[in-house]
Amino acid sequence: MKAFEYTITDPVGIHARPAGILVKEIKKYNSTVTVAKGEKAVNALKLMALMGMGIKQGDTVKVTVEGADEETAAAAIEEFFKANL
Amino acid sequence: MISIQGKGVSTGVTIGPLYFYQRAKSTIRRYEVEDPDAEWARFKAAQGKAIEQLGELAEKARVEAGDEAALLFETHQMMAEDMEYEEAIQTAIQDNKLNAEAAVTDTAAQFAEMFAAMEDAYFQARAADVKDVSGRIIAALTGVAQGGIDSPVPVILAADDLAPSETVQLDKSKILGFVTEGGSGSSHTAILARTMGIPAIIGVGDQLKPEYEGREVIIDGSTGAIVIDADPDARAALLKKMEEQKRTRELLEQLKGQPNETKDGQSIRIYCNIGSPDDVPAVLANDAGGVGLFRSEFLYLNCDDYPSEDYQFEAYKKALSDMGGREVVIRTLDIGADKQIGYFNLPKEENPALGNRALRICLNRPEIFRTQLRALFRASVYGKLGIMFPMVTSVWEVKEAKKMCEQVKQELTSEGIPFSEDVEIGIMIETPAAVLMSDRLAQVVDFFSCGTNDLTQYTLACDRQNADLGRFYNPHHPAVLRALKIVCDNAHKHGKWVGICGELGADLELTETFLSIGIDELSVSPRSVLPLRQKVRETDVSQVKEKVLNDLLSDENTI
Q1: Which residues of B touch A41 (CB under 8 A)?
Q2: C-alpha–C-alpha distance, residues B320 and B325, integer Å
Q3: Which residues of A are catalytic?
Q4: B454 burial via Cβ count (<10 Å: 0-12, 13-18, 19+)
């Protein structure tokens, strides 16, 4: 299992567009990606559930990646967060 | 001949057959299915079809209005194929043996509720998206084509009101004008009509009967008049008006892309006054250079309680990003006097025009002001923002307001929230005190914008809402025009710019005066932009300046 923490800088937080692109990104890999804020965690493939967490600018989220290609997936997804969120 | 009166929200006269917008029926049957697997397959097929339609709509929107517009439909696409949404529907169909239409309806309600309960305005608005997407899947399930116009000739479209996704899907080559039962001046239909430059009349209620379908109707968007099967005389008069407008519009269209420059080479900026971000398409369609006055009151008037920072932020951000880098001057809260809002609990005053209003309320209740300033600075990274304070009489007021801006910037810095350092801060010049102090005020602001409605009222001691004052209330009074000149001279001495954002800005009889005294910007309603540009381009300041300046010194203005 790989994990990283990230603080959201996008002024609107995790909104529809980046959440949608994130889903597409995750689908490229064979790993399960979980986004957690505090005690709440969701499977990042679930677009509306992810949006439903109401993650805002300044919130720190913990992202875990688990699966066959977790090394490459985690690196790519961390890059994605930095570039889009 | 049948005459109906509505409220015109987009001007112009047009003639054509009346056509009622066709929409899918929304009553959903609910029943138990015998073969849940087959029902699930039905859902998957309908979902696929909805996703395909949304893809086409996204492309259509991209071509017509750009990437930003396409995004709405791409988001809808993602929602339609969302895993959790799909799982909830699957459970309803396979475990509860519910038919697909009912399963989608229930799931949509559940997700819409989740979004609606969220704090942030952006996410709250997603509730409508979930419903829109689900409606599309249900339409695909029931086999009813998404509404539209099935007519060989262009029509005057009648509807109760149209949702955003409906307006985008319309075949615009088939629409001559709009008539709606409900709606408001800022409804999607009204905005679309103004953007397309075709007439629209709203609020006709049940006066429009289904049996009028297909009959010839003439609508006049400037008066709100709708005439069905017009008499020959009425018909001829309206058609004449239509011809004249067409000719004028063609002439004005040629002015798009032309500079606002006089014959002798003097330039002036022509901006627009808007009341909400929804007016931005009209600003762009009329080729204005920016927004000179964004009245922020609508945010407060639309709410039952003080609007949150996020809610305001979304509106400012939208206006700024939609204007694509052109300047947007947002006026901070201007209530009191003739504009009252219940939840502010303002005590009743003997003389509200001279009472607690605008910036005075903001300085007395800094918590309200602070929320607005935070929202404004947060939005500043999305475009070129100007902030303007209304109803100033003293230098200290401006200093105090600016100090609050600095505090808000410090807060944002410490919270790691970005804002632009390039925000212009200006004030409205509406009071004689501000005119007389303009040499000092010019040293503490970046620009002035003259609110001529109030400036006239306060200078002439004439209540602008009292219709009986007639000849005493004269906005062309030399006192008002001299005041504008004093303001201009003082601003320019300190290298600051001056605009006019009151009704007077669009008064073509005064354009020569404004150019002669050196006004830098005129902010007017979107439709006034091109006529004003025409007037500017016809003017030769060197020919009229001397006469205009002499007029300011005379007893009466001869203009």
Answers
A1: none
A2: 7
A3: 15
A4: buried
